[in-house]
Write a structure and sequence with these properties.
single chain; mainly alpha; about 140 residues; about 0% strand; about 80% helix
């Protein structure tokens, strides 16, 4: 796969990830984090940190999941491996918080591990399918 097509897959994944995660954060789980983490949540998002997370996580999805699945023409591999990588990445954050922060709610960890799996898997699957359609990979 050419570097250009890999970059296009990255852009596709970036858009899909952002849209799906904003629906989660802005609609589905809007009050969930405020309810369970209200006392420790910042009143403002640290956008540089959030953007860096998005860029790095999506880079990992493209390198380790989306590009290989696209080359092998295996959307189901994208779904499974994307879910696994999402689980691992979100577990790194949440389990570290659970281990080190006073009163970190276990329900947040459980929901985030589920969400990381769903997000990683769905973005990877949709990116491979969109890549087939948009850039004919």
């Amino acid at each position: 796969m050419s570097p250009k097509n890999t970059f296009l897959l990255y852009l596709i994944a970036l858009v899909l990830f952002f849209l799906i995660d904003m629906i989660w954060l802005g609609v589905v789980a809007k009050g969930f984090y405020r309810k369970h983490l209200g006392g420790i949540l910042s009143s403002r998002v640290n956008w540089p940190a959030a953007i860096l997370f998005y860029l790095l996580f999506i880079f990992g999805l493209v390198v380790f999941v989306i590009r290989p699945a696209a080359i092998q023409n295996s959307p189901l591999d994208a779904l499974a491996m994307g879910a696994l990588l999402g689980l691992i990445c979100y577990a790194t954050y949440d389990l570290t918080n659970l281990a080190t922060l006073k009163d970190w709610p276990i329900v947040v960890t459980v929901v985030d591990l589920f969400w990381g799996s769903v997000l990683g898997g769905s973005v990877s699957l949709a990116s491979v399918l969109a890549g087939r359609w948009l850039i004919k990979i």
